[in-house]
Amino acid sequence: MKFVTFETQGGRTLLGVIKNEQFVVDVHLASNGKIPNDILDLLEKSEEYMDLLNHLDTYPTSAVYPLSRVKLLAPLPKPRSFRDFYAFEEHVKNARNRRGLDVIPEWYDIPVFYFSNHQSIKGPNEEIYFPSTSSWWDYELEIACVIGKEGRNIQANDAEEYIFGYTILNDWSARDLQRQEMKVGLGPAKGKDFATSIGPYIVTKDELEKYKENDRYNLEMTAKVNGKLLSKGNYNSIYYSFPHLIEQASKDVTLYPGDLIASGTVGTGCILELGEEVHRWLQPNDTVELTITGLGSLVNTVGREED
């Protein structure tokens, strides 16, 4: 299933599932109130509610909306937490090479992550405003998973059962701020915390089964700026797969339903890697489109702050 959080023309915010790529079903109304109207509440008892959804054969007309007449919001508007990993070797090599550095040996020992701002999640078609003190504006092409079951000290071999689904993620980056603060030995923080886009929906893992290859998926990942293809990679090139990311994230810590875990940038998946000789930094009115096989396309436009 493809879960969305959407806004009706009347201004109501609802939880829905996509049907036939043309309609959105209000799951709360369709289930006579048995399924909650919030994705976090659904995730708390995801197995129970998914079973209910799977047995809904018909929907009242009042619960069905044409997809073209609703506004899709971030499918998980307020994650309980947000961890972003650094799991694609090609990205690490390219990004460090741009600074004249090799990959440090410790990167191969454990997957590492940083916590980002789970309160600044943006949705599809939402304008993105970069910090006013920054001018090196960048996108990052990533895939993320949503945790659907509480767990602690989860082993990689068991991690699949804790994943509810996947979504596209754009880890917007103010590279000049990021470079400045990371010289101190901490971060990234202010170079990242202003916005992260996810969407357009959360795809349950069963829908991706046909793309599965051992502990990862064969999913092509691309990024376009103003219609020009800049980035192209595949999730199956990841060095640390999501089961290993979950194992690391849950060591001595409890993961909860609604936690968001991102892969980090796929190889060539940002302007920092490609270099300004390939494409300038982003500017106001630029449109960035991220596409991943099976997960759809996430589109955002860079906004301009009013004086």
Kindly describe this structure:
By secondary structure, this protein is an alpha+beta fold. It has 2 domains: 2-72, no CATH class; 81-302, Fumarylacetoacetate hydrolase, domain 2 (Alpha-Beta Complex), CATH 3.90.850.10. 16% of the residues lie in helices and 33% in strands. Strands 1, 2, 3, 4, 5, 6, 7, 8, 11, 13, 15 and 21 form a 12-stranded mixed sheet that branches. A 5-stranded mixed sheet has the order 9-23-22-18-19, with no helix packed on it. The protein has a two-stranded antiparallel sheet with strand order 10-14.
What fraction of residues sit in β-strands?
Answer: 25-35%
Structural class: alpha+beta
Which overall shape is indicated by the principal axes computed on the Cα atoms?
globular
Number of strands: 23
The CATH architecture classification of the largest domain is Alpha-Beta Complex
Oligomer: single chain
Order of helices and strands: EEEHHHEEEHEEEEEEEEHEEEEEHEEHEE
What's a quick, concise take on this entry?
With 307 residues, this protein is of the alpha+beta class. It has helices spanning 27-30, 39-44, 46-54, 89-97, 175-182, 242-249, 271-274, and strands at residues 2-7, 13-19, 23-26, 64-66, 71-72, 81-85, 113-115, 121-122, 127-128, 137-138, 141-147, 151-152, 163-170, 173-174, 196-204, 212-213, 216-217, 220-225, 228-234, 254-255, 259-262, 287-292, 296-302.
Question: Characteristics of this structure?
Answer:
single chain; about 300 residues; alpha+beta; Fumarylacetoacetate hydrolase, domain 2; 2 domains; 12-stranded mixed beta sheet; 5-stranded mixed beta sheet; 7 helices; 23 strands; about 15% helix
